[in-house]
Amino acid sequence: MTIKDIQELKTKIDQLKILYKQGKTDVEKELRAFQRELKQISKEFCKNLSPWDRVSIARHNERPQTLDYIKALFKDFVELHGDRCYGDDPAIISGFAKFYNKSVCVIGHQKGRDTKDKIYRNFGMAHPEGYRKAQRIMKLAEKFQIPIITFVDTAGAYPGIGAEERGQAQAIATSIELMGSLKTHIITVIIGEGGSGGALALAVADRILMLENAWYSVISPEGCAAILYKDQSKVQEATKSLKITAQDLYELGVIDCIIPEPYCGAHLSHRLTFLNVKFFLRKALNEILQYNIEEIVRKRQERYLNIGFYEDA
Amino acid sequence: MSIFDFFRKKEKKENLWTKCEECKNILLAQELETNFYVCPKCGHHHQMNPYLWANMILDYNYTVLFEYIKPTDFLSFKDTKKYKDRLKMLKESSNTSEAITIFDGKLSDYPIILSVMDFSFIGGSMGSVVGERFKLASLKAVQDRKPHISVITSGGARMQESVISLMQMAKTSIAVDIMHKNSVPFITVLTNPTTGGVSASFAFLGDIIIAEPKAIIGFAGARVIEQTIKQQLPEDFQTSEFLLKKGMIDMVVHRHLMKQTLKNILSLLFYKNA
After folding, report:
1. pLDDT tens for residues A66-83?
2. What is the mean pLDDT of residues A116-137?
3. CATH 3.20.20.210: does it fit domain B47-269?
4. Architecture field, domain A52-305
5. ipTM of the predicted structure?
6. B55 touches chain A (CB under 8 A)
7. Which of B69, B162, B228 sits opposite A218 (nearest CB)?
């Protein structure tokens, strides 16, 4: 049983549902049977998901992306563009919106879904101007005391000539430093891929939520296999060693909460995923809003200043 | 480890002759050492051990700090070799106890905190120990109101510590932020090579960023970029001189002039009346 089989079953069910809605009630029995089967196999499948399976799910093309979440969870979204220095990076979306009638700042990586859109968004791999745009919008949020919600979904910051020329390292470093001391409340949701520095540049936060099948790591499994194992075929082993699943990160104390995904894959039901994310996001926001700004910044800094495992005898 | 241990260890494996990495000329090892590991023939800057950096930059009496913070294999990480075994091996063979060493001393009578990275310790990679020592060094600089000078060389984050090494980027950046907010100067000296997670955190957060000539400095490795864009890279790509031209660093300084330059900056910015 693979993810593909589940996907096929899901498509069949959707087709039958359409038929059913059109008035062909004789498919009801078949539909019910399929739905039972889906529930059964996804339950079994979820039990034995390997870390590598989760990486494939996190990269699924139909997985909800930042703009999908913005459409589903927020109202009155206004997108803001440009870093005021060089350009606008479509790989990062930023702006303000209403969440349960309160203003929030929303920033996230956007990968794009069809080929044209993917190329336009550079597959969610940001350039320095993307991170500088994010910094500009975060400073606006700080100025007007608006909580920030970031959505992380990137394979990594873009490795290219232009990116290096314009200071990719500096852009990421300043983003991290800014978020570490920003005087407003910050929540990060890791929705898909959390690739290294490019992800961390939007993920220094007071609460870090992570979808069940998302991954977050210092390097991609492929990169780790190539560098440490010197063998691309060892990618599954590398994934396991790196401890990049939500469960691992929760145990290491890097994230605060795991958001469950429906049918072991957010792409299988966007509607249920949105409901889950909305619920946990609201909960986390209410939690951190209890602290005033001085407290929350102090707590955030303490948290990061204390991360690490070492002997000190 | 005392400085004597260091020299004793060094004596054991010392060879009389050595070869320049760049021009391949055969050199007397001692000649290279007295020249602070700058090739006398071609001027190539070789990597230099943290203790030699301290000897070069600091006045005679300095102390080594935070050596009690030691690495541990908390994930039981295994690639081609166990991380635990790697650490054990390095404990026996390496001159340093981790990829960063912190010194408390004086530069031409100006009190400073000096942190120096060591590329020979797992590629100068940043794990929990580098993060913690750097943080403690920065907090001490703030507490004692001394400038913090950091001599950097690193391949990036330490993959053997996985996501915890990624978190060290946030840890060190916040430590730098505390220095910034307290008006304690933070000066970084980027040496060959400085890439990945270290360049994308404290290396590029210096108030003043100095680089050694022809050092490779950047975020992504040249090979990764080449594979991604499938184009030949410009010849001086990611060198100090390239970054200077692009406005990413303040200056390129020869190693022999480093101490003088640092002293000058300190007297202009911080020790203004001394």
Report:
1. 999 999 999 999 999 999
2. 95
3. no
4. Alpha-Beta Complex (3.90)
5. 0.91
6. no
7. B162
